[in-house]
UniProtKB/TrEMBL annotation:
<dbReference type="InterPro" id="IPR013083">
    <property type="entry name" value="Znf_RING/FYVE/PHD"/>
</dbReference>
<keyword id="KW-0677">Repeat</keyword>
<keyword id="KW-0863">Zinc-finger</keyword>
<dbReference type="InterPro" id="IPR031127">
    <property type="entry name" value="E3_UB_ligase_RBR"/>
</dbReference>
<dbReference type="InterPro" id="IPR001841">
    <property type="entry name" value="Znf_RING"/>
</dbReference>
<feature type="domain" description="RING-type">
    <location>
        <begin position="33"/>
        <end position="169"/>
    </location>
</feature>
<keyword id="KW-0808">Transferase</keyword>
<dbReference type="GO" id="GO:0008270">
    <property type="term" value="F:zinc ion binding"/>
</dbReference>
<keyword id="KW-0862">Zinc</keyword>
<dbReference type="GO" id="GO:0016567">
    <property type="term" value="P:protein ubiquitination"/>
</dbReference>
<feature type="domain" description="RING-type">
    <location>
        <begin position="37"/>
        <end position="82"/>
    </location>
</feature>
<dbReference type="Pfam" id="PF01485">
    <property type="entry name" value="IBR"/>
</dbReference>
<protein>
    <recommendedName>
        <fullName>RBR-type E3 ubiquitin transferase</fullName>
        <ecNumber>2.3.2.31</ecNumber>
    </recommendedName>
</protein>
<dbReference type="InterPro" id="IPR017907">
    <property type="entry name" value="Znf_RING_CS"/>
</dbReference>
<keyword id="KW-0833">Ubl conjugation pathway</keyword>
<dbReference type="GO" id="GO:0061630">
    <property type="term" value="F:ubiquitin protein ligase activity"/>
</dbReference>
<comment type="similarity">
    <text>Belongs to the RBR family. Ariadne subfamily.</text>
</comment>
């Protein structure tokens, strides 16, 4: 059986965009001395010092991409894009965890969860702040902490509360 390349060599193939990362007109694997961070423009970075996990072909040194992610988290961004202004590729959080402090990564993850909760119309238990998703049934929610509240208005549940305007028949 004829093969063009050995298994596992995919990581060695160049990825091209409008700014070619190859040294000549031919498509060939990047050499270490050709790796360039597109932020600081330092040449000759070792492959292990580069971030190449993004869905696009842009390459950045770990220091620069880490600073980019840090700034975006501090700006309360949840969808962090490739730093290239013409690129709309989003960075995957699981590949960014080692690039920022645990505290910053946790802030980013919490913001992503809160964004999802808002999109899905989840509620927070007024007692313990656990997120609750109502899939069916009445508006009375009993949280895992034991607190009972109205899903519509988040007020503490009482028998007199059955007439909440959010209640459905």
């Amino acid at each position: 059986m004829k093969r063009n390349r050995a298994d596992g060599d995919d990581d060695e193939l160049p990825q091209q965009d409008d700014q070619s990362n190859v040294s000549d007109e031919k498509s060939c694997p990047l050499k270490t001395d050709e790796l360039v961070c597109e932020i600081c423009m330092v040449k000759g970075k070792a492959r292990e010092d580069m971030y190449e996990k993004n869905k696009c072909s842009h390459t950045y040194c770990l220091t620069c991409i880490g600073k980019h992610i840090e700034v975006k988290i501090q700006e309360n961004k949840t969808c962090i894009s490739c730093p290239n202004l013409k690129c709309k590729s989003a960075l995957e959080p699981e590949f960014c965890q080692s690039l920022v402090s645990k505290e910053l990564f946790d802030i980013w993850m919490d913001a992503l969860v809160m964004e999802l909760a808002k999109e899905e119309n989840w509620r927070s238990c007024p007692s313990c702040m656990t997120l609750v998703d109502k899939t069916d049934g009445c508006l009375r929610i009993t949280c895992s902490c034991g607190f009972k509240f109205c899903y519509a208005c988040e007020a503490s549940w009482t028998d007199a509360h059955r007439d909440c305007e959010g209640d459905s028949p």
